[in-house]
Recover the amino acids of this structure.
């Protein structure tokens, strides 16, 4: 669903009680029902082999551009069918993607290194950069999770239209696969999506398909670090062992470790114009 919904309209009294109130005039790029459909399609049998990993059920969270959680969904039969810890992680990934993606107008000069198109970074792109000695070391500690918002409320409402996280800023910075910026048809960042519940590589694959299913992957021409202009924020597997021990060495500085039953990210859909 490509239409943007007023958060005030989303925050209605649901079956599990009243959802938190939202600030008037703040929009959400995704409805709960649309996120649910996109997630179920992404984890469907047709994509299981291509997604790699363990084939587990998943959590997905969307935040708007202001960082408010506005949709949470799961793919299993109920909230207990996924790793419970992955709900908060999905929100953290969504927050990270929203916080560190940029669209047109974000560059001080058109002659800058990135031009004037913005910069797309997935959470997978951050892994190597935040390791000791990396260019973004310490980033993962910069915006801590608000645990009061992340763990509030009745668990029976988790993943529903009345999820207690909705209308709150959960915050957090996550630095492995599963978080992506959401881009509208004007290449404008309108929020972030986070997916968690399997290996971090598979989380990235499923998040990518969710974004594509939502039609919020209009970042063709936006700068990235993947080396693939048709998938600018794709996961990069370029880490080699460090002979001195510790974390491996990423050739480009934005690599991600491989995972159990690794997927092939080159098979993901290209982004839209």
């Amino acid at each position: 669903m490509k239409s943007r919904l007023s958060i005030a309209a989303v925050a209605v009294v649901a079956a599990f009680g009243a959802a938190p109130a939202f600030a008037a005039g703040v929009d959400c790029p995704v409805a709960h029902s649309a996120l649910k459909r996109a997630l179920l399609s992404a984890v469907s049998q047709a994509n299981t082999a291509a997604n790699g990993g363990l084939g587990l059920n998943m959590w997905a969270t969307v935040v708007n551009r202001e960082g408010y959680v506005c949709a949470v969904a799961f793919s299993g039969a109920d909230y207990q069918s996924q790793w419970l810890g992955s709900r908060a992680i999905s929100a953290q990934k969504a927050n990270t993607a929203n916080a560190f993606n940029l669209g047109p107008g974000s560059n001080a000069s058109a002659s800058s290194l990135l031009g004037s198109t913005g910069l797309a970074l997935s959470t997978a792109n951050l892994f190597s950069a935040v390791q000791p000695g990396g260019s973004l070391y310490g980033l993962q500690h910069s915006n801590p999770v608000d645990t009061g918002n992340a763990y509030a409320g009745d668990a029976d409402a988790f993943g529903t239209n009345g999820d207690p996280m909705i209308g709150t800023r959960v915050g957090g910075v996550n630095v492995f696969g599963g978080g992506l910026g959401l881009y509208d048809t004007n290449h404008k960042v309108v929020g972030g999506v986070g997916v968690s519940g399997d290996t971090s590589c598979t989380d990235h694959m499923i998040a990518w398909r969710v974004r594509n299913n939502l039609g919020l992957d209009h970042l063709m021409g936006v700068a990235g670090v993947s080396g693939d202009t048709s998938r600018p924020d794709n996961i990069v597997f370029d880490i080699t062992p460090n002979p001195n021990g510790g974390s491996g060495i990423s050739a480009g500085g934005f690599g991600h470790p491989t995972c159990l039953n690794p997927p092939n990210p080159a098979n993901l859909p290209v982004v839209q114009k």
Q: What stands out?
A: The first helix runs from residue 7 to 10. The first strand starts at residue 5 and ends at 6.
